[in-house]
Amino acid sequence: MTALVAVLALAALVSITAQRTLVPWVTQLAIAGAIVGVVLHDRLPPVDPALILFVFLPGLLFEAAFNLEWRELRRNAVAVLLLATVGVALTTVLSAGLVHVVLAVELPAAILFGAAVAATDPVAVVATFRRLGVPARMRNLIEAESLLNDGTGVVLFSVALAVTTSHSLSASTVALDLLRLTGGGVALGAVIGVGVSRLTGFIDEPQVELTLTALAAYGGYLAGDALHVSGILCVVTAGAVIGNYGRSHHMSARTRDAVEVVWDYVAFVLNSAVFVLIGAAVPLRLLWAQLPLVVAGAAIVLLARAVTVYALLNLIRRVTRTPAAWQHLLVWGGLRGAVAVALVLSLPASLPQADTIRALVYGVVLGTIVVQGSTIVPLTRRLLRIPPAPA
Asked: Under DSSP, is residue 343 helix (H, G, I), strand (E, B) or coil?
């Protein structure tokens, strides 16, 4: 309880100060968490990956998916699907290959590293875009890609870990696992989303309908896990269906207001807690001891992200018409966060080069949040020609 009060107080303080600076509040929270981690290093309990995957992630994913605008998503659909599928695979392969060749990391460990950092977490970027008045389609593109690539990234990491720890898996088995996890997660989420949406049409009790959305988020995640499909893709699909179909067709005005306000606050609390935890969980002493390796790993991931975004979006430029400035922001705004930390924490201790993978992933997460997160405001203003805010 003391920890929760401390996180809320820190979040409120940082949110107030962030309004007067160019550094997003989640970036400041991660820095504050890192300071706490250094000061209280011996007294902090280890971060349980289940805490991130089962407590924080479903709520954050549901809230973001619930607020996705279908009109903009339809315009971005081709780019989002390509980046969240082929893009995740390409980022994984490029990151793994370069880390293996340049940094001499063993190939199985390099593949796990590439899969862990393939998914993006642009919470700080999306909040900044809203504040600066960036076009809605641009915000939708970066947020929708992140929601889907969280699911595909976790699926790819799970399969890579299974292949690494069990050498008997065939290519056909891996392909079927990928299809089952992704397709099953989307199908289950669609069923839950439509079911909850229809059910709310027979009720006009905001508290009950809000509870149903919470069941869709957390119950959907648990159902996906129990049925051995992607719980993340289940939550994202359910949230998008309820937000774009259930909200407009089956919710009364007072229910919509209640659901939007409550989930907005839930996302604020969860984001605050998860970014403080990320900062506190990063072993700065380990990163400092392997600083050249960590910096090189972060540069490799940024290069892989750049190659992926520019290659894929220019391949379909006649369909998507994504401006070059937006592509630059997609590259620089591709932060890594909670998903990468949870995945690397779930690695078995007996895995060869596990410490190296952890150091590289922590370095990428902290580096993107601090360096790219703190510079996204001036870069956005420069690329989109947004005038500075009046003093």
From this structure: helix
Cβ pair 155, 236 in contact under 8 A: no
Decide if 358 contacts 326 (C-beta within 8 A).
Answer: no
88 within 8 A of 119, measured Cβ to Cβ: yes
User: Which H/E stretch holds residue 160?
Assistant: helix 136-165
- Of residues 81, 67, 38, 124, the one with CA closest to residue 264: 67
Query: How many CB atoms are closer than 10 A to CB 211?
Result: 11
Contact indicator for 297, 103 with CB cutoff of 8 Å: yes
Summarised one tens digit per residue, pLDDT across range 187-226 is: 999 999 999 999 998 888 889 999 999 999 999 999 999 9
Q: Which long-range contacts (CB under 8 A, 24 or more apart) does 284-290 make?
A: 284/34, 284/37, 284/38, 285/41, 286/355, 286/358, 286/359, 286/362, 287/359, 287/362, 287/363, 287/366, 290/356, 290/359, 290/363
CA-CA-CA-CA torsion sign (34, 348, 286, 105) = negative
* pTM for this predicted structure: 0.87
Distance CA 285, CA 37 (A): 10
